[in-house]
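Appendix B, example 12.
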Amino acid sequence: MSKGRDFKLNFSMKLKVPRGINSLVLSLITVVLVLTLPGLAAQVRVNPSAPELGDTLSVVLESVTSGTQPTVTWKGKTYPMFAIGPNRMRVLLPTTPLDQPGTQSLQVNDGTQVQNLTVQLRDRDFPTQSIWLPPDKEELNGTDYEFDRVDAFKALVTPEKYWKGPFLRPNAGEITTIYGVRRYYNGDFAEDYYHRGVDYAGGMGSPVVAPAAGRVALVGRESQGFEIHGNTIGIDHGQGVASILIHLSRIDVKEGDFVQAGQVIGAVGSSGASTGPHLHWGLYVQGQSVDPVPWRSATID
């Protein structure tokens, strides 16, 4: 079966494995590591200070020199920082279940000096499922049009920040598959796969709402070649943060629309590679799928 460019079929399973209590506490409580850069007035704040796989890192630079464009280098990639207040800039960085836990390096360049920092990335246990696909599902490959559109959407990094406060639950249905689940497909372990989001077993036609404010940057329809994702909405929340909601039965928005948190944007369905009605909500930071749960529990401001 084709792996579909980093996308795997999202099949709803009755699997509910709560995240560890210690991890949840770290996600809910703002724990800040403050480091004073030698020879500079600026300070770097990294939150959470003890992240685990799937967490989003918030790196804030205080007392930024006017006219500079600070950057942060993380896992071999360099990201721009964005203004979030007077003399304050921030970048959000992803971690995923495929990362190696342990000491990770972080370089902050404020425009005048580079400072090397370290982050202790903690391991996390992710449950495993065995999926046995029928022949008609096993042969699904998706389309180039579908994957090109989705890849371009995930690569968006808009300087504006559109969201405010914790993200909302996009559907009232029961959670059936959590973030990060690893899978065997027809007996073969999918090495580079993890469940890139949360599945909600909402009833067919039940409302899907925007988890946060943003601009609709992607509308894909099954009839136009979205054979795996099905009917799809992608929302750009700004500053490299984006939501994708798939398998919809109805789409109520169009590309370019600006939506508010809680606004109905579509309805639960079973379009695309789905075995039954459910909503898959994926949250992406800098193009990588992160755990949405901390975003609903605490404010990443």
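The longest strand covers residues 241-251. The longest helix spans residues 144-154.
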